[in-house]
Design goal:
Rossmann fold, 2 domains, alpha/beta, ProC C-terminal domain-like fold, eight-stranded mixed beta sheet
Amino acid sequence: MTRIAVLGAGKIGEALLAGLLAGGRSADELVFTERHPERAAELTSRLGVEAVDVATAAQRSDMVVVAVKPQDITPVLTELAPVLRPGTLVVTLCAGLPTALFEGALPAGTPVVRVMPNTPMLVGEAMSAISPGTHATDEQLTAVEKMLASVGRVVRVPESQQDAVTALSGSGPAYFFFLVEAMIDAGILLGLPRAVAADLIVQSAFGAARMLRESTDHPVILREAVTSPAGTTIAAIRELERHGVRAALIAAIEAARDRSVELGRGER
């Protein structure tokens, strides 16, 4: 059984630990690091997973998951490099950072797998894309897939596509939250209480997402099924197109991709 260490217990790190436990992992097979003692104690109390330092995490684990912010990566790799055991698989959840950065900072031959998850990991519905570094084997990729399957869906992509993945699904939940926020505000403008507007929109979003997942129809077909001739929906769609919402969304995702590329170049 693979022993796993999670370096960094922010929202994603915590969600991964909770997902692994929910998926049947024993707390004895997991450890984590956290620089804030109060946060570490709270997580240990709630999850039953031991908080340790980086050296202990590296010594005990077959897989080390790096789940820190990109701007915090240098001190983490500096601390990890001298204590990492040969053959330990390093999994990075750091947005924008290429496997080459880890391979250059860690002992020669270290297998690295790059992952772009997203925050629905918190509810077991993450979308994660994984890419192997130079030394990662197919068996190790499969092990990472199995780990991430406990918190959502997983897809393999070439690392050259990871900046696009970051922009599309890594940041994607924020776009949906932004849209839902605007729709709730519209409901309030039209005279609905905030709680009612929120309930209407959140359930509509949940149902629409389920339809998208379970239907074989293209999103255009699903949208057209709601769009009656001379009806309310087509009037709304006309306004969205008139205001350039589609073009703005595409431009926003391109901007997120460009920022991911900048992070990979060290422009943090």
